[in-house]
């Protein structure tokens, strides 16, 4: 089973090949729990036994494939969390819209 993780503000995608025995629903639950609880790191072990750790606060999306990679589930970053991130950077105007320079950069 393949997992693809998009990192916020980065063109790179992390691709992890998990063991075929891994339960797809457990992976989806693990990702959802990490995003909801505010965990710092989302951790997976690939089919070669390597540890992959991704900063949970930087996750933009996660694609979870099946063992045969025919179907995938995408879990997108919540708009509220993205707005909160921009707000902390001081990048939002009084209406909650991105300020000019940052709007053009995204």
Keywords:
single chain, 106 residues, alpha+beta, 4-stranded antiparallel sheet, two-stranded antiparallel sheet, 3 helices, 6 strands, 31% strand, disordered C terminus
Instruction: Estimate the mean pLDDT confidence.
Output: 76
Which strands sit side by side, in order, in the main sheet?
2-1-5-6
Distance between the termini: 31 Å
Structural category:
alpha+beta
In short:
With 106 residues, the protein is α+β, with helices and mostly antiparallel strands. Helix content is 28%, strand content 31%.
Describe this structure in words.
The protein is an alpha+beta fold. Helix content is 28%, strand content 31%. The chain is built from three helices and six strands. The strands form two sheets. Strands 2-1-5-6 form a four-stranded antiparallel beta sheet, with helices on one face. The chain is globular. The relative contact order is 0.18.
